[in-house]
Design a protein that fits this description.
Elements (H helix, E strand, L loop, with lengths): L1 H4 L14 E3 L3 E2 L8 E7 L4 E2 L10 E3 L2 E2 L12 H4 L7 H5 E5 L2 H9 L9 E3 L8 H6 L1 H11 L4 E5 L8 H8 L4 E6 L5 H7 L6 H13 L3 E9 L7 H13 L3 E7 L4 H14 L1 H11 L7 H23 L4
Parallel strand pairs: 3-7, 5-8, 8-9, 9-10, 10-11, 11-12
Antiparallel strand pairs: 1-3, 2-3, 4-5, 6-7
Helix pairs in contact: 4-6, 6-7, 10-13, 11-12
The structure holds iron/sulfur cluster (SF4).
Length: 319
């Protein structure tokens, strides 16, 4: 999902103007200071995923481009380079806003050829990043999808999704709705340095609890797991237990994927953060984008054991 979809999405216009008409930039103020918003009038909002993609959905919506959550490892960073902006600081602070996303989506959903296939949000940017507090596009999109009887899923790292609980409950009574959270770790020290613009993972889990209590299908992707930073048995066990305690399911676990500008951005951050670990990454990843199959298998086994332990704790039985 989010950490791997950037290559598969058709929404890769090669310039800012390719997205539609660019309006004047707006500087963020107050809690949004330091951010610059680039409103565009989008020509389309529903993106079709490349037919060769292995993703379990064919349609996505990304009302924003760039993401103030600023995760060091974010695989969507290259989407800013397509726009002539940098995959580093610009991605974190210059946020493209498809200002007409709700109206445009309403028109696209009204097309008689629309087959009400599943739509995924949160694939290339976080739909509940800080800009959403100001522009409320995701809220409008949720309403439109529900009214058009279109099933959808949301993947977020934000607790702001709780704001839309009323709409999500209403939508879930009509169509299939999943609200998933990315929780790579609940280790606060790791979270603080690797996901500096996101709410604390425990706040995400509180939002997950609210979704679960309201009867909405919810869970977490334990991703990306960062070797040497968030992959000790103790960290994985604590993270999985926190997800289960919050009423969610573990929807999968993936180690860090490193490619292109994301690789450069992450490794240069890691060099500043921990030079010895940086050297180990160079050795472990080499020129590859992923770690070995053995590591993947080890991780799946570690998650399985953590789940067994969390479930037995929840039911009071031995693992
Ligand atoms: S929340 Fe998701 S889209 Fe936003 S920076 Fe982090 S990984 Fe990227």
């Amino acid at each position: 999902m989010r950490w791997r979809l950037a290559d598969d999405e058709a929404d890769t216009q090669t310039s800012l103007f390719g997205l539609g008409e660019l309006l004047g930039p707006e500087q963020g103020t107050g809690r949004l200071s330091g951010l610059e918003f680039l409103p565009v009038v989008a020509r389309s909002v529903l993106n079709q995923v490349a037919p060769t993609s292995a993703m379990p959905f064919r349609w996505t919506i990304n009302a924003y481009r760039g993401c103030s959550h600023a995760c060091t490892y974010c695989f969507a960073r290259p989407t800013h380079e397509y726009l002539g902006l940098s995959a580093g600081e610009d991605f974190d602070s210059k946020i493209v806003v498809k200002i007409n996303a709700v109206e445009r989506l309403r028109a696209e959903l009204a097309n008689p050829r629309w087959a009400r296939e599943h739509v995924a949000m949160g694939t290339n940017t976080d739909p509940y990043q800080r800009a959403e507090g100001k522009y409320r596009l995701t809220r409008g999109i949720v309403r439109e999808l529900a009214e058009a009887k279109t099933p959808f899923s949301i993947l977020t790292k934000s607790a702001l999704v709780k704001r839309d609980l009323d709409l999500l409950v209403q939508a879930a009574s009509e169509v299939d709705v999943t609200v998933a959270f990315s929780v790579g770790t609940v280790d606060a020290a790791v979270w603080r340095v690797t996901e500096p613009g996101t709410p604390h993972p425990r706040r995400r889990l509180e939002a997950m609890r609210a979704m679960a209590d309201a009867g909405i299908r919810t869970g977490a992707l334990v991703a990306p797991v960062l070797p040497g930073l968030s992959d000790s048995r103790a960290q994985l066990t604590e993270t999985v237990a926190a997800i289960i305690d919050a009423g969610g399911s573990v929807m999968g676990a993936r180690p860090l994927y490193l490619k292109g500008p994301t690789r450069e951005h992450f490794l240069s951050w890691l060099l500043r953060h921990d030079a010895a670990l940086h050297a180990r990454y160079l050795q472990a990843y080499g020129r590859r984008t992923e770690l070995s199959n053995e590591y993947h298998e080890w991780l799946q086994d570690a998650i399985k054991q953590a789940l067994a332990s969390a479930n037995s704790r929840a039911t009071g039985t031995l693992p």
